[in-house]
Amino acid sequence: AGADLNARDKDGKTSLDRAKEHNQTPAVIQVLQDQQQLLEKPPKVGPELDARDEKGQTPLHQAAQNDQVKPVRDLLDAGADLNARDKYGKTPLHAAAGWSKTPAVVQALLDAGADLNARDKYERTPLNVAALFSETPAVVQALLDAGADLNARDKDGKTPLDQAKQHNQTLTVLQVLQGQQQRRAPIIFEFLKRSRRLLRKALR
User: Fold this and answer.
1) Is the residue at 119 inside a domain?
2) CA 91 and chain centroid, separation
3) Ranked by mean pLDDT, which of 30-34, 64-68, 92-96, 166-170 comes out on top?
4) Measuring CA to CA, how many Å separate 5 from each of 1, 2, 63, 74, 78?
5) What is the dihedral of CA 53, 56, 59, 60, to 10 degrees?
6) Is residue 22 part of a domain?
7) Which of 147, 152, 160, 178 is packed most tightly, with the most Cβ within 10 A?
8) What is the DSSP string of 79-115?
């Protein structure tokens, strides 16, 4: 994920050209063709704008998880469903959070109004998914900067930090989550302290 499908090697050949030359499986070639078509000419109107593949993903899901910033913006401008769900309940923001290596994709979805704390069928938010699968600290940071719930628990009761630790997430992703937790802790403590003072005053 994240490769430039139109990038050419020293012989002037793209990934699709090489896949055909090396007798790559039809499924792989089809994926490359679909992604290249999306890059070159995203659908503008009609039902194909939110057409579903076998996983229930729309073109916006696919563009989001494959680092395709311009197609993401084009699809959003064309009216693609920002919070469409695939068969696992994941939105395009879930897809970008877990598999995009480009924070600009996440930011484009957030700027368009994507649901920051949407839950998939496993009760995971985009931040939960990022903690599990992302290898890009800047993507995790973009979600945190937007106000993602650091304490969101999935159906197994795990927070993003729990998931990052349990799944041997990269050290930098762990550091981002831990750092954010440490920064938020004093704010929460101060809020609780103030709430107690107000409660005591009300009970007098």
Assistant:
1) yes
2) 8
3) 92-96
4) 10, 9, 12, 17, 22
5) -170
6) no
7) 160
8) T--TT---TTS--HHHHHHHH---HHHHHHHHHTT--
- Please state, as a whole number, how many other Cβ atoms lie within 10 Å of the Cβ of residue 173: 23
The CATH number covering residue 77 comes to 1.25.40.20
Q: What is the pLDDT of residue 178?
A: 76
Residue 174 has pLDDT above 60, yes or no: yes
Q: Which residue has the tokens 């973009």?
A: 142
The whole-number pLDDT of residue 28 equals 46
Virtual CA dihedral for 153, 154, 160, 162, nearest 10 degrees?
90
Number of domains within the chain: 1
Q: Which of 10-24, 87-101, 116-130, 172-186 has the lowest mean pLDDT?
A: 10-24
